[in-house]
Fold these 3 entries.
Entry 1:
Amino acid sequence: MSTTKKSEKKSKAKPQPMQRQRAKEDVSFLDGRRAGTVAFLLVLFALALMGGVRITPGVTVFMAGEIADRDVTAMQDLLVEERESTQEKLKRISESQPPVFNLSSDPAHRVESRLTEVYKVIHESSPDNLEEVRWQVSEILNREVSLRSIQVLRNNEIENVAFIRVVPWLQERLSQGVVLDDRLLQEFDNGIIVRNDSAAQDTLRLDLNKIPDVDELSRDLEQFLRIRLEMSLLVRKALMDLFRPLITPTLSLDPEASQERVSEVISSVEPVYYHIKKGEVIVRKGERVTPATQLKLQALFSQEPRHFEVFRPLGIFLLGVLLAVFLALSPQGSIVSMPTNRDALLVSFMLLLVGAGAKLIGVIEVPLADRITFLSEGAMPLLLPVAGAAGVIALFFSMTTCILVSALFSFLSCQLLGEGLGMFAYYFLGAVLYCVVVKRAQTRTGVLKSVLPLLAGLFLAWIGMRLLDTRMLSDVPTEASFVALSGFLSLIITTSVSPVAETVFGYTSRFRLMEQMNLEQPLLQELMVVAPGTYHHSLIVANMVEAGARAIGANALLCKVSALYHDIGKLKNPDYFIENQMGSRNRHDKLAPSMSALILIAHAKKGVELAKQNKLSPEIVEIIRQHHGTALISYFYNKAVEQADSKGAEPVQQEDYRYPGPKPQTREAGIVMLADAVEASSRTLLDPTPSRIKNHVTTIMRSIFNDGQLDQSELTLKDLNQLSETFSRILTGIFHQRIEYPSQAKTEQPRNGSSRNGLDKAASTGLAVVPKRRSGARS
């Protein structure tokens, strides 16, 4: 126990080589990412500055009557107010606006008050002073009343009729509106607005012929007395003398309110505009300039941007950074990941190419349009091959990343060219479509054929853009030619830049992987001849990882190619690996456990060296380096522990029997590690029934998982479960039962009889399995 404790303390005190290596890798990783980010931001800032610089010539303003010496084309959509039409429109609206009339309630109230005052005088009179009463009543009514009418009005019945029947009727008619003369309303064909201040409401009256004037209401009153009340002529005359002076206008025109209402309506009226479309020819060379054309030219000149716009580059840079944030998210919980230096550098390089091409087109489109008659300025941006740049990205990045990069390329191109939403849709849809097509291409010939669906998509996007923003039909042939040329330029860019990306940035396309997967490759041919057992093992592992990667959505092609090369390090000492011993004596029997462990550990390092010498893809090199992780070579470790315990030697350090790593950093590396261990250890099964194979696969994968070898590989428990089922299915097919013929039954030896036991074979092939704890083991 004391020895074990000392060993544990010594092990804890001794720095772990893998920890130091991972620390160095983390630092370099951060430094690389920082360098790529700085390069990306510099490119983005430079393009934003280019977007704020206006290099194209300004608008030439010709005066009315002059002859234009050049074509003038609108560089942007613009609305120009047509002042004469606007004034005419305002005049029509002003004249059609109904005037405001105030409805007063005073005349209706005055009827009852004056009538009360009249009858007060009459009640205080006597038959002897009727003449005096007549003059007093005339003064109240401001109109002379006859003596006979005063005598009639003294009757109590007439008084009751006046107060009970006539006054309410007259008040109601007055409250509905009465004008002084109906000729005042004849000029208002659109009606009038009656403003009732007491009711706090405005009413639009269109039935002006139903609004009576004072004379008409007087006649209606006389008809009311004669027909409805059936009064005699004498009584009617007396009542008319009494009420006729009380009929006054209740509607009066309010000029100030009418003008205020007209002003409110006019302020809400939209002016009449000329709608100038981008690319529209305002005046052609040799034409005489009209006043309307001069107005358009002046409006274009006033809206023309300065040589450098301060805020525009800031806006472009800010929006570009926001789009790029999605590309720079960390892998944990993000939709995409761009953690490496070369990713940022490649995107920066392609962004610089696209931005420089967009600015070049923006500079030359106006001079070329002036010199080439059939060339229109609006057609030149269609030539920019944004889809080609996105196609290069599609060869090395995920589809989600391709969509975000396509949006970034399309946005910056439109800003540098001064284009709108229609052109953005043309660029973006074409780029995304090409990314999909390129990702489905399995060979370089397939990439060449991808130009056909790209052309179809570009033409559809162009047709949709033209439907949104119609232009002259004469531009259709030119624009269609540029769309077709853009598709072929995109193909040229994709096929020409992708080899540069593979060489300069160290990327591996699927086409390069397929070339390396060819079994006629010299390295694979040498492996087949020198180490046939390892070659056969690699073929089986390749089939297993391909099926497993497809099951969990990993890169199946990278897994398969990496599996073919993962054990090329065994070419240095092939006879020290049991699959290549061909039934001869195991050479490890005469070696110390530490020496055997060194030989096994060395094959990963030598495999990396051979891969680099033969210029294999960097991803394959890393998987060769990581396919054993930091796993423990348990067989030789346990053997060394037993020997040390029997001799009483110093405790064996477990780190000396572990692979240097690093642990698998990707899902693909983890799949190769699992398949390698499962396939090698499956050779120890004496009776490989489906249930035994499944239990064996589960045991091996669980031991690797418990040892922490998959902690950094991004493989989930769901992935491991699917891989276990896939590996079991493939191994069951390999070890399927055959019919046993009588002649074979007598001579056939037990499977794997050349190995002393299963762990010996697994260890000799490089399999690392975590040992079960024993009483004599040191952990």
Entry 2:
Amino acid sequence: MLLNILSNAVKYTPDSGTINFYARETLFEEGLVHLRIEIADTGIGMSEEFLQHIFEPFTQEQQTSRTTYKGTGLGMAITKKLVDQMHGSLDVESTPGKGSTFTMRLSLPLAETAYDTPEEEPPADLHGLHLLMAEDNELNREIAVTLLEEQGAAITTAENGREAVELFQNAPQGTFDAVLMDVMMPEMNGLEATRAIRAFEHCPPESGIPIIAMTANVFADDVKACLEAGMNSHVGKPLDMQVLAAEICRQIRRHTALLESADFTKLGN
């Protein structure tokens, strides 16, 4: 989030300008710290009209000075969505020709002390992995793709379950390392798509490609429905990328170990 705001400040501030970054604690409670983060630049600024829409997807100012800079218009929409998911706030003030100031307020839990922290698994490494992701919400899809690619994964996306099944069936065997499956999608939902993939594979879920549900439906019955459809695990929304990456690696390790065990058994026979 901060990197996106800072990169925009660098992009839209001339070499002779300045960029200031401030962060301070505004309140400390037991187990919780409240932060106020401010990024101010002396760049080209933004019009009042544009500020009304700055956090909307695919929004870019239609004036020559800003359209000379390339971009998708998704950066601020993604940043705002992430801040909202963390129950924070993001405000902006700007004057054309004078610069912009972004103010972010977050309330974050304190990390456990070193002696209370249990030994953790090594950080998940997604480099070299090719993932198939089915997600019908364009902004959610863009956020997930951006964060997964930052961790080294290659992503092929589908906008609904039917497209995901077609991509999987038409790809050479072994193209994808895992499937990330939204549940509520048009044309074919995630449960139906998973059943179709398992039928195509002609094997039980434990030996098929890892399929991980990504859904806001996190009740026990929802998780049970995902598993009964043939998925291997379930990650709730809003996505915690650390949790998702760890689950992807965990499922791929399990799948790889199972295949290696099967190959060893064949050799033994």
Entry 3:
Amino acid sequence: MIEPITNLLRRRPDLRSAAFLLAAAYGSLDRFDDAEAVIRDQVTLAPEDPQPHTALGLIFRQAKRNEEARQAFEKAAELAPDNLWLVDQLVELDLVDKHFDSARQRLHRQFQKAPDLPAAHCLEGKVLIAEGKWDLAAAELKKTLQLDPNFSSAYDLLVQTYIATNKLSEAASQLQAETSKNPNASALLTLALLYERMENFPQARDAYEKVLSINPKLIPALNNLAYLDAERLNDLDKAYELARRARDLQGDNPAIADTLGWVLYKRGDYQQALTILQDSAEKLPDNPEIQFHLGITAYAMGQTDIAKIALKKAAAAAKNFPGKDESKRRLSLLETGISASPELSISKLEAMTKEQPNDPVSQMRLGEAYEKQGASDKAATAFEQAVKLNPKLASGVTSLARLYAGPLRNKEKALAYAKKARELAPGDPQIAALVGKVAYDSGNFEWSYNLLQEAARLRQNDPALLSDLAWSAYTLGKVNEARDAMQKVLTNKPDQAYAADAQKFLALTALSENPKDLMAAEAEVQKEVQSNPEFVPALMAQAVLDTKQGQIKRATETYDNILHRWRKNALRSCTLETLLPSLRRPILRQKPAGHCPTTLG
């Protein structure tokens, strides 16, 4: 994602949505300095717009640079004085530093503007909780819910006051009595939350359903019941319907989005879940459960960098939550990788896959270990199991395409998996390069050339990719373009094999275009043809030599050999004709069907 968006912003630095997307990508990888640089460019472009200042504050919060975050949010609040979300961020920072008076002064200014503002009363309750003033906090939070029954965070904070004062059972009894006489949605929702905390999940479900019978659009009830159904009651269809309704009603709430994302993950829709959870985690970077959800989903998608960062945040959280131990276990697997001893690593990984048969990353690690050991069949089986667990696991599909194109030598399967990888990650240059190579080996030269061109635009310094592009261009008769690509191979510090191939390619294709030098290099050309009879530039040079020397029959046989080889790979006949020099008529006797016209000769 980072490379193509960076290239786009170089051309269009004013595309704010692209800049925010790039900053979020950097932030998800803990590359906060890079994220800051991207957003500072947006601040420079629009210094009086609160949005870039707000984005800068969020980056600083993620990086734990609280003082800089405060300055950015204060600047944004100065530009947008009625934005209560900014006030919330500033109050949170005040509470982290225990600056209670500063927090209360901010709220006092809000109460002066609107004394019955629910968000301000909720923030006042939050400040009182931070001070340990539980009864006063509960009163403020109840006031919040009287003013706005949809204010979801106030319910959680209210329950927190009951827990802190050991009043869960007492509060539940009081609310039961109250709601039996007067079924009030707000009181029933608080009761449902209390039941959840007491791990009485069926009664919690019943209470939430009573709430929704009174008010079907009460967002906290929709959201909480969706999570309860997904996490505790194993009713994913109902959970999805409820979570979707909540998101439709309040699409900008990251906590609501997190619930939908987690339900999607549970249903196996990892790609859609990942997109939603990345956005939630960016907006609520200090919420360990959201980080856990993001980490587990990225883990299932093989997005190991994102998974590691999110799981580290979840595992390092000060508070306990249900996924904390699982965060540590998955993180351990991601950070261990394949050890120096392949046999030991494989035995451990085999045991892991038996213990956790539905863990795609364990299967991927096992496949990588097998592949490293040279056990290609076993590697393919492990990768196929990972893809079976997650059909949208691009890394697994790509590994299968690579194996079948290489040691397993199954072009049909290689091409099928390569096409699937392309569908899953159409903007990934690495996958485009792989698919291009597989397409070339399968004889689909036009598609190969287009894919490799696309990949090379984004990865301009990759010798292997440039070499593949050169051969693809050469096969289509684009000799000058092929030579340019091979020349770039040499300028990008290739390994010895690529360097030797590029030098040989450039030397022999140059000879084909220069008859005088070709005659002088006759011995070298013949030596190359004898040592590598499949190397087409050498065959082409030999055919030109034979033509110059009047060996028409032998030249024709060489050209026929090349044509036969490329026909077998589904090459269009006009490609070879583009490559042929002046000798043409002996070959054109054997035009294949569909021969295309030419101006050469």
